């Protein structure tokens, strides 16, 4: 998946445990682990905002985009002007 979740990085910088973050955000440690390990398919903005507040960071500190490698000759479906 091209979206990478860097919660581990922020946890290390803040010297905070997964359990402590989960408690501050109001989600279960298991659900936080799903997000942290990149297995989540979506994240609510309210959860993202709570993570940012608890970790004193911006959304871009937690999420980044790493495009998948695709052949340059294959146009994107439904997107005009791309290849």
UniProtKB/TrEMBL annotation:
PANTHER family: DNA-BINDING PROTEIN (PTHR37301:SF1), DNA-BINDING PROTEIN-RELATED (PTHR37301). This is Helix-turn-helix transcriptional regulator. InterPro entries: Cro/C1-type_HTH, Lambda_DNA-bd_dom_sf. Residues 61-83 are annotated as: Disordered. Pfam families: HTH_26. Residues 13-62 form the HTH cro/C1-type domain. The lineage of its organism: Bacteria, Bacillati, Actinomycetota, Actinomycetes, Kitasatosporales. Residues 62-73 have a biased composition (Basic and acidic residues). It comes from Streptomyces composti.
């Amino acid at each position: 998946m091209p979206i990478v979740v860097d919660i581990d990085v922020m946890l290390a910088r803040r010297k905070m445990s997964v359990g402590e973050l989960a408690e501050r955000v109001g989600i279960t440690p298991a659900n936080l682990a799903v997000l942290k390990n990149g297995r989540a398919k979506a994240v609510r903005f309210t959860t993202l905002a709570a993570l940012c507040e608890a970790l004193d960071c911006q959304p871009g500190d937690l999420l980044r985009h790493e495009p998948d490698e695709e052949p340059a000759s294959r146009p994107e479906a439904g997107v005009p002007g791309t290849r």
